[in-house]
Queue: 2 jobs
Job 1
Amino acid sequence: MIRSLFATGGFKTPSLADAYDRAAATWHATISKFGFVEAYEDLLALAGRRLPAGNRHDLAVLDAGSGTAAFSLAFGRQFKSRRFDLLDVSPEMLQEGAQILAAEGFASRLLCCDIRSLAEAPKRYDVILSAHLIEHIDDIDAALSAFRSALRPGGTLVLVVSKPHWCTTLVRMRWGHRAYRPADMQAHLRANGFEAIETYSFPAGPPRRLSAGYITQTQS
Ligand SMILES: C[S@@+](CC[C@H](N)C(=O)[O-])C[C@H]1O[C@@H](n2cnc3c(N)ncnc32)[C@H](O)[C@@H]1O
């Protein structure tokens, strides 16, 4: 069952949620075909050294703008985490994501709400994963500040964000999202209290052309 854990705070974006609802049934197959699941696995391999040592089964992990949970799936395969909080405005994406995770033995709690309501969340996540969400948010600093609020001190944020490229321009015609140059993303992250920012260039395929990865942390 989908729970609306946090207040939505009037930030609902129904038309975008509807569009993603309609895309949900084929989303995972599409992004797998374009190499995004492997790309997320490569990025997370690099992020591993930022995670607490020892048993990682019980880390509190949030996948923000989870879609069908590809980022969580990559994380679970790599670090054997058992459960994930999936947050998205699209109920259909959340349902698909829960099924995809369950098929590999991972549990999930579904939070159907806008990312900005995380600003009201307690600082409790060890890790926040977020792929291709931030580009949909009008105020990127509000979203990054919400991430910081939801992370415990020393918590890790792993982001994947669209970057300027002619391929991004084509995809944007469908989804209307923004793109950020890595230098600008780093500045936004610093301005919102993140430190030790590492930028990752995907080596191949559509992820190389469309996206950049970022691994960063809040102050301990
Ligand atoms: C481009 S998809 C990425 C999905 C997934 N992270 C992936 O990499 O496959 C963006 C997702 O963000 C969700 N989303 C867009 N705006 C949102 C918001 N304000 N709050 C929460 N989720 C949002 C959409 O419903 C969609 O599932």
Job 2
Amino acid sequence: MLSVLDLFRIGIGPSSSHTLGPIRIAKRFLDENRNDLDRIARIEAELQGSLALTGKGHATPKAVMLGLCGVEPETLDSDEADRMVERIAQSKRLSLLATREIEFDPERDIVFAYHVMPDLHPNGMKLSAFDANGALLAEQTYYSTGGGFIATERQLRTPAKNDRVTSTHSVPFPFGSGAELLAHCARENASIEDIVYANEDAMRPRAETDARLDRVTAVMAACIDRGLVREGVLPGALKVTRRAPAIWRQLQAHPNANEPERLFDWLNVYAMAVNEENAAGGQVVTAPTNGAAGILPSILRHYCLNGNAPQRDARRFLLTAGGIGLLYKQRASISGAEMGCQGEVGVACSMAGAGLSAVWGGTPQQVANAAEIGMEHNLGLTCDPVGGLVQVPCIERNAVGSVKAVNAARLSLHSSDPSKVSLDQVIETMRQTGIDMSSKYKETSQGGLAVNVVEC
Ligand code: SF4
């Protein structure tokens, strides 16, 4: 089993598959060729498929340079990242894993292979290292498979057993489907949170898991706080103005107003604050991706952190949502380039609905029903980012997704019976829909809003 913590990675925006994944790929390539580091005189990174088609708007070249410099995404300061990339662009020199400088011209050494659409996964990246005479020292193609996960060709070709992602961890309650997860809960008279906790306990001490969950919560909350006050225009040709600060000011001006519709404003402003920070390259947590990073924090902030037991509720929310997220990762995909936006915002909505249902006291079946509802009404959602930027429709889509997740949680509590559509059926439906979806609508900016909205 994977860990739920693998779904909540701390990094920088704007994209987990196009920014975080490529940082990890470039660093991994050099780590795997450390013995040749002294001989490397030139590195070439070839971006393939969706990484080429939307890489510029998703800051993939920046990610490649940061990864070659050996940065750790979790501790990377976003302003320092910008300065590093600026220095490389000016000097045309780059320090491999921060140890040895070589010449590096981003215009020459990062190649956009628009014509290559890899068979294994649409986010391909080939790295090649050459010595001073131009002889090839090492070459490897990797894939950025969504949510910051990366894989080699061999790893992608290794079939998962019973839909379980291959992992070295052995856990007491392995599950590869919603049915298996619910069966564990019934047999052990346990919640989904309990089952996930027990599996995490097999990977590390409980205190460490709790500390990492609390850190995820803190980074999500800090991201909201920054996004609520940072004014201005987001990077890129669209010139999108940040909207969260204005909505936040209106809410602060009337803190005691209690019209029911203000609930939307709270959820919207938190989600948009995160996604505007993400679009600006700020620090965010994949949940389960960067593009969909606003939905879980919005609900976490409004329903967990404002309550009487914030730490307990936040951990319950993340563990439950994470357990559901693992099902999508294992049985389908959380990559917009493979599944469209149903695999990002749809999955986040499903995870958040499940987590909130658990916080509100839902049974395991009700939690599974919330997850199912959260996805069922996002099926077919396309990925068509305008200008290749993670801004339109992404920012508003997270706001709408957070409201939808709350409704999924509410609906789940009205019945104890299994839904007509099971969680496994809706995940499989998402997978099949994603496979059938035209590549125009899968993070290529070749269809949908991306071709009907004129950039200026
Ligand atoms: S449309 Fe959805 S999947 Fe595509 S970049 Fe935006 S948030 Fe990600």
